[in-house]
Amino acid sequence: MLIPSVHKTWAPRGQTPIIRHRYQRDKISVISAISVSPVRRRLRLYWRFLVKGNFTHSHALEFLRHLLRHLRGHVIVLWDRGRIHRGDPTRDFCRQFPRLHLEHFPAYAPELNPDEAVWGLTKGRLANGRPDDLDELLAHLTASLSRVARSPALLRACITQSDLPLF
To answer: 24-35, pLDDT tens digit by residue?
Structure first.
């Protein structure tokens, strides 16, 4: 959102840090996934943005289609139980693509989801920032996600910090 997330920071003694911003509730929605290749254990981060709005079934299914275009062989997707991840459209989509296998995390278990760590890293880099508009927020968000995506060590840390079994 254009409203900055505020984290602890340093300032000279007696001078409270102030973040000035315009009160705008515009936002960018993001969907993302970490892939692990089964043979070479290569890691990759995929994401898609939606400016001004929330993701729907059709957006989630388009993201799955994007993953299927880039990943070979069987694709196992672990995701939360969000409404856009369930229902008839999702079941119909899976019937069309037999190499796609969907597994859901248990309810209310973000500690199992490595993607939550990606967002912790990404939002941490954006903390205390003050983008003036959605274009600037998009640029910062892209830079932050690209930094994580370029680092196999960061992606591996996102997986190992989760409570998933090690690969």
So the answer is: 667 888 899 999
Q: Let me know if residue 36 belongs to a domain.
A: yes
pLDDT confidence band for 109 (50 / 70 / 90): confident
Number of domains forming the structure of the chain: 1
CATH of the domain at 155: 3.30.420.10
pTM confidence score: 0.80
Asked if residue 84 belongs to a domain, the reply is yes
Domain that holds residue 98: 28-161
**SS3 for the chain, per residue?**
CCCCCCCCCCCCCCCCCCCCCCCCCCCEEEEEEEEECCCCCCEEEEEEEEECCCCCHHHHHHHHHHHHHHCCCCEEEEECCCHHHCCHHHHHHHHHCCCEEEEECCCCCHHHCHHHHHHHHHHHHHCCCCCCCHHHHHHHHHHHHHHHHCCHHHHHHHHHHCCCCCC
User: 64, 92 in Cβ contact below 8 A?
Assistant: no
User: pLDDT tens digits for 37-54?
Assistant: 877 788 999 999 988 788
